[in-house]
Amino acid sequence: MLAFLKNNPTKKQITHIKIFLFMLCLTPLARLLWLSITDNLSANPIEFIERSTGFWGLFILLATLTLTPVRLLTGRAWPIQMRRMLGLFMFFYACLHIITYIWLDFAFDWLDITKDIAKHPRILVGFAAFILSVPLALTSTNNMIKRLREHWKQLHQLVYLIAILATVHFWWLVKKDIREPLLYACILITLLGVRVYYKYIKNAKVNKVQINSL
Amino acid sequence: MIIRNKPDIAPSEITPKSVFDNRREFIQKAGFGLMAGAAVSLLSNPIKAAIVSSGAPEGTSRLMGHTSVPAITKPLPFGAHQKIASYTKTTYGASEKLTTYENITTYNNYYEFGTDKNEPAINSKLFKPYPWTVSIEGEVKKNKTISIEDIYKLAPLEERIYRMRCVEGWSMVIPWIGLPLAQLIKWAEPNSNAKYLEFISLADKQQMPGQNLQVLDWPYVEGLRMDEAMNPLTMMAVGLYGEQLPNQNGAPMRLVTPWKYGFKGAKAIVKIRFVEKMPVSSWMKAGPNEYGFYANVNPNVEHPRWTQSSEKRIGGGLFAGRIKTQMFNGYTEQVGQMYAGMDLRKNF
């Protein structure tokens, strides 16, 4: 059953893994729905939903960025096949996050929303991260990958900027206790650091391979 | 070769002293609860806050059936969910819709007990607010201390319903019970050098686990200008919803200044210093650009993180939207004149 840990999984196993991952990525949403039905979203339910969807968006984004380092470090390439789904789930939770903000938090008061974005750097970087992730979601189809060719790769490198912005967005949310955002910042730095190491240091020695796959 | 003797009791099985002590105290309280039921009228405690016949700690009746409870000699007049026997209702906030007790006591910013808002209710369970004394120092006729029991007796306790606006953009409506701070100041007898008051909260890592983390410069310090402290709105709260303050809300005594952001309300106050120079509060130290001394609710002065022009009223549900934040949280009539001519953008 767990043979794919040793060998690469078969096509069928990949499908099973994908289905499992799909269900897994839906559990945060299921939890939110359950908590809202049972009236357990705390005294400030809107903030709770904002925090939860924001957290899972960032978490899944970091998970997406883990796949390439896994390949670089272990030589296993098959997890890359999960990347699109994870990326789209990140976008899914980011959408829920911003819908909560616009609808539940600000009740479509566009003037207040504009002011909030303009006046608060925290909101601005979060909003920028969301806007930047829209073209990535739109160009995630096979058709777009073919059509954009090498531009697709360049475009999708925006994900690094999005991850940095999202982490800063979280960091600026907390008043004083920065332990949690610090943890994600460290994870992000590690994930990016592995890439930088392979691209500029290791490959400079070996003088080839894998540059494209960054 | 190292020979290890396996200990009889794994370290993980040893009951921590605090838990052990707490259990003893619980049993004592339970014992007292039994006595109290029979002897309410004999109690000479002036506050009478302690024991109404239903005032026995939860679980007492269950305990009765199974355990023989040792009698105790010293009455414990305070405890969780103790009703405050006598206070007068006032017209303050009579038209407001109250935030529920549940929400007021489970959604707290009280970093001494953790930085998440649900943590204070959990982490303050072992906190012991009684007995308690408050020391009065600085520019006063004479340094002195006062017990919480005597503070209850300084002036008739009043219930006042105040709006509370947090700097984070949410608000509640809370039925506080307490006395005007002015009454306590009168008792403290400040001299003419006293221009400001500094409120110092308890520093005790044993009881306040959040203080193990240096998120703020402990102990928590807040301050008021003398006229603000003397303003009739300013209150020393000792209770809410007819009960003694729950630990997570600042037991046994906290400051309430409803026209200021919530963080001005120092909790578990152990010391009040009368001083000549403006005190530096914990939040001013932590973020001088974000938190000023005055911290008056002001929809026109933005905070770098949160919208201050509107707020979410806790308890409104998912689709209630926001309400407009009012200048001085709607208390301009009572407090506006104190800031006449001041640049409130600069003195935020």
Provide structural commentary.
The complex is a heterodimer of chains A (214) and B (348). Chain A is built from ten helices and no strands. With 214 residues, chain A is mainly α. Chain A has one domain. In chain A, helix 7 packs across helix 8. The longest helix of chain A is centred in the last third of the chain and has 28 residues, at 179-206. Chain A starts with 10 loop residues before the first helix and ends in an 8-residue tail after the last helix. Residues 31-76 of chain B have low confidence and may be disordered. The interface between A and B is medium-sized, with 26 and 29 residues.
Strand content of chain B: 15-25%
Supply Rg of chain B.
Answer: 22 Å
Tell me roughly what share of residues is in helical segments of chain A.
over 70%
State the CATH superfamily name of the largest domain in chain B.
Oxidoreductase, molybdopterin-binding domain
Number of strands of chain A: 0
Biggest sheet character of chain B: 8 strands, mixed
**Strand fraction of chain A:** under 5%
Largest interface: A-B, 26 and 29 residues
Going by helix content, strand content and strand pairing, the class of chain B is alpha+beta
Structural class of chain A: mainly alpha
Span from first to last CA of chain A?
A: 31 Å
The number of distinct structural domains of chain B comes to: 2
As a whole number of angstroms, the C-alpha radius of gyration of chain A is 19 Å
**Rough outline of chain B:** globular
* H-E string of chain A: HHHHHHHHHH
- Average pLDDT confidence of chain B is 85
Write a short abstract of this structure.
The complex is a heterodimer of chains A (214) and B (348). Chain A has 214 residues and is mainly alpha-helical.
Notable characteristics:
heterodimer, A: 214 residues, mainly alpha, 10 helices, 0% strand, globular, B: 348 residues, alpha+beta, Sulfite Oxidase, Chain A, domain 2, 2 domains, 8-stranded mixed β-sheet, 5-stranded mixed β-sheet, 9 helices, 13 strands
